[in-house]
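Lab notebook, page 48
Experiment: co-folding of the full assembly
Goal: obtain a model of how the components sit together before planning crosslinking
Operator: M.T.
Materials (sequences as entered):
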Amino acid sequence: MRAIVIDDERLARKELINLLNQFDNVEVIGEAVNVDDAKDKIDQLNPDVIFLDIQMPEKTGFELLEELENVPHVIFTTAYDEYALKAFQVNALDYLLKPIEPKRLEEAINKLQGKMDGYSRSEESAVPHNSKKLTLEDQVFVKDGDRCWFVKLSNVRLFESDGNYIKVYFDNFKPMIHKSLNALDERLDEKSFFRASRKHIINLGWVEGIEPWFNGGLVVTLKGGDRIEVSRRQAARFKEMMSL
Amino acid sequence: MQVWAIIVLAAFGLVSTHFLRFIVKTYNWFKLSIPQLFFQSFLAIIALSFVNVVAQIFINVAFETLKPEEDLRILVILANLVQALLFYVVWFLLYFLFHFLDNYNSTLKYEAKINEIRLNHLKSQLNPHFIFNALNSVRALVDEDPNKAKSAITRISNMLRFSLMMDKKQTIEFGEELNTVKDYLELESIRFEERLEIIYHIEDEAYNYKIPPMMLQTIVENGIKHGVSNLVKGGVIEIKCREGLQDDLYIQVKNSGHLTHQPSMTVKDEQGHGLSNTIQRLKLIYGDRASFRIFNSGNQFVITEIKIPKQKVTFE
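Observation: model returned without errors.
Model output:
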């Protein structure tokens, strides 16, 4: 796997790169000293994984993730952040505590390697992979206040636009991200996600029931009970997609 | 007529006990030793009882309720005297009991406050973020520059030892605190490398002062945490210590950065935590004679300044 190490401290980067060099399956292809630098490097080099420090000058590691279009796999590195550790109670995302214990690092890398192997197998069986579109297997980074999640898109049942924000519905949470629904719609795989109306994008995997509604529209019930109206214009397309 | 006499007598009782309270307060009887207090209260009670008896007679005369053949008998006067005496004794007991309880209560509150501050103080002393980052740098230094790594380990141990010992003391020698701050800044400059510039201006007179432990340290740490470490290009920490005109020490820490809001006094506010603690400690140790300020100096720098008097307020 190709990795970028992001940390504002030279010695911290050096220490981690030293540790990473002992793994045959990891190749460090670059290092970055702050969020803007990291953004450029990630766009240029397209790494499989980034090792990301949370506390950095001006912008934190979280802000980097919010700014990225395509988020690679992330392993956080932090010295001691109650805040950060709390933020990840929700979902198991990997983080390493500095000074990094080599054994812990090995575990993290093996776990990630397993995950990546799983991906490539499913990708081979699927239709040629379009790297620009987000599929159900992709994860998105969502931060709301002081909580963060890495959510697999297959777990997201609904996106709802709310002013300049989008509410992301998954499990019992609906954090907001700062994005327009149109921009998001363009990036989502149309086989899995459907633009129900101006306000909503639904995950087709979560559809449980469909009823006719006024004016030739539809109401879709999602698993979990959310009821979403499909506008008349979209209803025809929807029927077409859902039928054989 | 009898009723009015009783009302006026009651009013006299009220006035006399207030007078007594006034005496107790003006001459600060609370500070007296127990035997002295007993002696003085005894005299006061006797005197007031006599006045009370005399007043009783005058009041009766005024309201024409005096029956000379009965009221002026020695036995009756003595009985009145004993009655007045008892009245004042009970008043005294209640008064001092109340004050004792009140005092006890506020002592408890004071101690609770001190303990709370001590606790916060301890928490702010060992900044885990700093310790772990420093250790991480040292791990990298072991290969790169073993000698530097060794001296860094010594500095980390110095700081740990200092912070473990210092919570017991109210103030320490200025020089001792400055050494810790120097250790701290050396360790931070290993982390930040060229991003941290350190400047000292210390007058020799400063070494004659005693200051609360970890106070300068906290201020410098704040300057790094909220100032220098947030700047991509890094910045400066400048420590200036000079003696003022009236036997007081001015300690000024100037750091790159910008203060966006005044640090609040509430302990819950994470940003201001260290500083609100500092303000509380200054007040506890020096009363109103110490001062604390934090302000922007232009757009590039923040200055934190404390003034510490040579003498501290002593608590018994």
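Interpretation: Chain A has two domains: 2-125, 145-242.
Next step: discuss with group before ordering constructs.
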